[in-house]
Amino acid sequence: MSRYDFNRDPCPWVILNDTGGAFAMGAIGGGIWHFVKGAKNSPKGERIIGAITAVKARSPVLGGNFAVWGGLFSTFDCALKGIRQKEDPWNLIASGFLTGGFLAARGGIGAATRSACFGACVLAIIEGVTFATGRFTSPPPVMQVPDIRPQSPNPQ
Amino acid sequence: MMNFNILRVQFTHSMRTFGIRCLPSFQNKPVLITTHHFIKANTRSITRLSNNNAHKILFRRQYNTSERSRKSIVGRGKTEERSSLTIGQKVVGAAKVSANISIIVLGIGVFGVIIYFVLKELFSPSGSTKVFNEALEKIRSNPECQKILGTPIKGHGGSSSSGRRRHRLVRFQEVINTDGTQHKLMRIYLEGSLIRGTALLDMTKNNKGIWVTKYLVVSIPEYNKRIFIEYNDDINKENKDDEKNDKENRI
Fold first, then answer.
1. What is the distance between the alpha carbons of residues A149 and B215, in angstroms, rounded to a whole number?
2. I need a surface site. Which of A2, A82, B218, B237 has the fewest CB within 10 A?
3. Residue range B159-181, pLDDT digits in tens
4. CA distances from B142 to A44, A156, B145, B153, B214 (A)
5. pLDDT tens-digit series, residues A104-115
6. What phi and psi values does residue B153 have, to the nearest 5 degrees?
7. Quick one: closest CA in B to A77, which residue?
8. CB of A8 within 8 Å of any CB in chain B?
9. Is B172 an 8 Å CB contact of chain A?
10. Is A125 on the interface with B (CB under 8 A)?
11. What is the pLDDT of residue A29?
12. CA pseudo-torsion sign A5, B160, A86, B147
């Protein structure tokens, strides 16, 4: 590994990593969600059994849906990185757009467009949240800006 | 009639033993619905005929439900008339409405801030995305960089040391210099086909308050070499030129 990107998988492998991470996220979140929902919807006296049944039936499905979304998103992201040779927020937004459109493609052009715009908006909002938190959590530090000068007065 | 009484007793008994859960399934059966109608019609005669507890319960239940529905109708009428509310109720209602509206306004405000940041970072000329793309274009079109790094030059922001950031997006690092001026630093990690390098971009505000690039330099640590792509010795130079032009025009 180079010293520039430790802690991080290179591009084809990051798809696997993202798929697994998304599955775990969906399964855990769906487990909590369906546990509460199952307990609420079961009759008195059978709440725990009903909740466990609901979790067993539904949360792997939700995890699978998340995994499909995450894996496809990561695939598109890697493809765009390879094509554009640079990494900027447009990659993320475009891959959210493509993922949403791709997954809703069976519903026709209208449904696919709507879903694609929704995916792009979600990714744009996530970007905005990270920008905003980065801005509000850390005030600019005081430091000596490296004053680099060329040897010749006029470069090029 | 006595036969029917026995049937009723069994019915209520079974209701009790199986619990509330069994009620809907019982009520769905057509036979039981007919008995229910019969009871409605003859509740009084049944109570007179037998002093059974079950009938009392049934009778009371029916009586209670009708009473409840009548009460609810009256209650609805009351809430619609605002003038008949007491002051306390009015205060509570106003507080509820204002709390709901404030939550909505807060949500819209947070959403607006997020949208502002998205638009600013993606589209504004001093936003990180645009500056990054322009700087990368300059680096890619520089012949010396092309020669040393190798032609397809990839550009990204490095991953943070903790590895928490999943995407290597380029961000500005906003700092305040020791002399008190605001600076924006941007470090771009370059990967050519031959060798890696880093580019450092320093932006600062000139005396008109516009962000100006002070330098953009590509450093290649393995060759211990620096390539200057852009260097502004004096960030207020353009403004001075403008002032000179203004003076000349005046003369």
1. 9
2. A2
3. 655 554 566 777 787 888 777 78
4. 74, 10, 5, 11, 18
5. 999 999 999 999
6. -100, 120
7. B167
8. yes
9. no
10. yes
11. 96
12. negative
Tell if the CB–CB gap between B129 and A89 is shorter than 8 Å.
Answer: yes
DSSP calls for B176-243: E-TTS-EEEEEEEEEE-SS-EEEEEEEEEE-TTS-EEEEEEEEEETTTTEEEEEEE-S-TTHHHHHHH
What is the rounded average pLDDT of the residues B101-113? 95
| Three-state DSSP class for residue B172 | strand
Question: Has residue A73 got a pLDDT over 90?
Answer: yes
Give rounded-to-5 percent helix, strand, coil for chain A: 75, 0, 25
Chain B positions in Cβ-Cβ contact with residue A90 (cut-off 8 Å): 122, 129
Using CA atoms, how far residue A37 sits from A31, A61, B198, B222, in Å, is: 10, 15, 52, 59
Judge: A43–B21 Cβ closer than 8 Å, yes or no: yes
* A85, A129, A142 member nearest B114 (Cβ): A129
Question: What value of ipTM does the predicted structure carry?
Answer: 0.74
Dihedral Cα B48, B49, B51, B55, nearest 10 deg: -90
Q: What phi and psi, each to the nearest 5 degrees, are found at residue B215? A: -150, 155
Beta bridge partners of B63: none
Q: Which of B117, B133, B226 comes nearest A128 by C-beta?
A: B117
